[in-house]
Amino acid sequence: MMGDQFRKVEQFSPKSSPRGARSPVVSRQDSSGTLKTTILLGKNPSIVPSGPFYLLKEPPGESELTGATNLMAHYNLEHSYSKFSGKKLKEQLSSFLPSLPGVIDSPGQQDNSSLRSVIDKPPICGKEILPLSSVQLDGFRLHPGPLPEQYRYANQAPIKKHKNKHKKHKHKDGSLQSQEVGPVAEAGPDTHEKKHKKQKRHDDDKERKKRKKEKKRKKQKHSPEHSAGGMTPSQHGSN
Amino acid sequence: MASSLENLESQLELFAENVRQIHIIVSDFQPQSQNVLNQKLQSLVHGLQEVDKLKTQVQEVHVPLEVFDYIDQGRNPQLYTKDCIEKALAKNEQVKGKIDAYRKFKANMLLELSRTFPNELNKYRALRSNIPE
Q1: Which residue of B18, B27, B52, B93 is the best one to mutate when testing the A interface, meaning the one whose CB has the most A CBs within 10 A?
Q2: Higher model confidence: residue B32 or residue A190?
Q3: Which long-range contacts (CB under 8 A, 24 or more apart) does B122-126 make?
Q4: A62-104, pLDDT tens digit by residue?
Q5: Is A121 within 8 Å of chain B by CB?
Q6: Residue A125: which H helix or E strand, with range?
Q7: B28-29 and A145-146: which strand pairing?
Q8: CB contact under 8 A, B68 and A137
Q9: Phi, psi values for residue B113, rounded to 5°
Q10: What is the spatial distance between Cα A50 and Cα A39, in angstroms, rounded to a whole number?
């Protein structure tokens, strides 16, 4: 059995070896996991395991830090652990950044504001940041007046609607219109296509309500007292 | 390190506040607001310059990429820290359980072997001086 285990070894003259036909003693820094064997050269080269036990390896060195140690205590993280596990952390990003304006709890992929996109497609940097010249500032001459409808409520948080309340409280008062805010879903055809059917119907309902309210506003502007027998908008327009 | 992060945080907050004010001006623009808007735009560029200056102070700060996934989902990044600590604790307990199980197995094995092969085990103990009898 031992004879079957000999390997081909390099042939060199046993006369040059100080230990004769036996392999030289080579000191190694880390001998853990190595087999204690003796390589015999000569006519019948063979590898003979030394010691009474076959395939006895040197054990790995003892380590002070193992998985059996309380690593939290070792790295002084017990305070951090108690801090994070004790108090209930809120799920939303806005609870971590309360002073940041706008809607930040929505996924970044929706409005192309994800950090992952910055890593995947890093922006061009290294150029000097210079103040805007007067010519460049001329490009920021704006037309007076309010923003178009689709951009107006972009930064406001959407109100959590409950279905029952939605049916019960149908707002007729125009002043409450500012509260009925939704995400800018109709901004582009791509976002519209991606939304679920329910969300589509929800957005359509919002649009219809907004149009109705605009019409009512216009009516109120033209004829503030409906019950006093005021003129219809068409009659008012003719005057 | 902490002060440089605080500096960056305050600078970014000022920048965000500036952008918010520009949004208010633009949402219902009046011609007399043009000068104010121009000033705000210049301060926007100045804010970017200030943030750019601070980059050298925070170069040694390493952020794990997984935190970005939490932020992109609109979740609190402190939840990532909490999840990491909990995972580390669970893994620590798991590994400790394995080590303890192996220790018990070794002790039982030595005991049974010493009963079955007493002479061989004495030779083995002589080779491995760290094994108690």
Answers
A1: B27
A2: B32
A3: B123/A52, B123/A53, B124/A53
A4: 888 888 999 999 999 899 899 888 888 888 888 888 888 888 8
A5: no
A6: none
A7: antiparallel
A8: no
A9: -65, -35
A10: 10
Min Cα–Cα distance to chain A from B60, Å? 18
Which CA distances in Å does A78 have to A37, A82, B63, B84, B89?
48, 6, 22, 13, 11
Q: Which residue of B has its CA nearest to A109?
A: B72
- Tens of pLDDT along B48-85? 999 999 989 998 889 999 999 999 999 999 999 999 99
Tell me, yes or no, if A143 comes closer than 8 A to chain B by beta carbon. Answer: yes
CA distances from A108 to A159, A196, B19, B71, B77 (A): 19, 18, 19, 8, 14
Q: Say which residues have a Cβ less than 8 Å from residue A158's Cβ, sequence separation at least 6.
A: A103, A181, A182, A183
Distance separating alpha carbons of residues A18 and A39, to the nearest angstrom: 14
- Give residue A156's pLDDT: 60
pLDDT for res A162: 54
